[in-house]
Amino acid sequence: xxxxxAPASRLGAPADTAAPRLAPASRLHARASANYATLRAQAxxxxxxxxxxxxxxVVLASSLGVEDMVLTDxxxxxxxxxxxxxxxxxxxxxxxxxxxxxxxxxxxxxxEVWRPPQQAVVEFVGRHGSDAMYRSVELRHACCxxxxxxxxxxxxxxxxxxxxxxxxxxxxxxxxxxxxQQGSDGRVKFSPLVDWSLGDVWQYVADFAVPYxxxxxxxxxxxxxxxxxxxxTLGEDQRAGRWWWERDGxxxxxxxVERNPAAGAASRDPLASETGASA
Length: 279
What we know:
CATH topology: Rossmann fold
Strand order of the largest sheet: 3-2-1-4-6-5
Helix content: 25-40%
Order of helices and strands: HHHEHEHEHHHEEEHH
Largest sheet: 6 strands, mixed
CATH class: Alpha Beta
Number of helices: 10
Number of strands: 6
Radius of gyration: 18 Å
CATH architecture: 3-Layer(aba) Sandwich
Structural class: alpha/beta
Strand content: 5-15%
């Protein structure tokens, strides 16, 4: 029996943690749209195209969020030659780090882990404190640039394409997202789930028992670094728990903000120009 044919029960369910859990998110949110089957087929076709067109030079840049776990499952289930990598910012939730280990066991795979330069992090915290992100948008952007943009740049250096779990529904800033976009640096970004609803994502998780972060069971729809993420309440949008203390501007870290090559080069050294490190 191949992985694609195996029933969910054979593939295993997410492991429980010691933290209290409410109704599983996979049961609470699973709700397939009318074109769910078509969306699944289209996503798989796009992943296959990425693997074929950029053989050996394409990576899923996974946040370990539920969308990226769905893509990881598709990649492994269908044996696609696509690397999977994630960023360990040094400030992740314990639940996220636990998922990283669980996912590698579940899929019998090695996930690349990219980290920011330790000395640069030490210098940043020594200069600005561990709560710098709360004191100004500029410092928060500088922290994101150091902990996320710099290691992402190294992750992508030898790659001609990358894959993300972005969806248009996630935020107004992502409303114009396309399934395939070429950046100013020539690198192609594939977003196979661009048209999926949140219900479609969780339907796939339920259908195939995809491992996911247990924080999703506690109303964390979007999960980043621990100091910058909280649960959302009834009626709040999916990204309300990210940088919730910021009232104005885009709620983005800069990972998916298009920059010209000159600005991109500057963003590799956030300590040299902290106020302009992230768009």
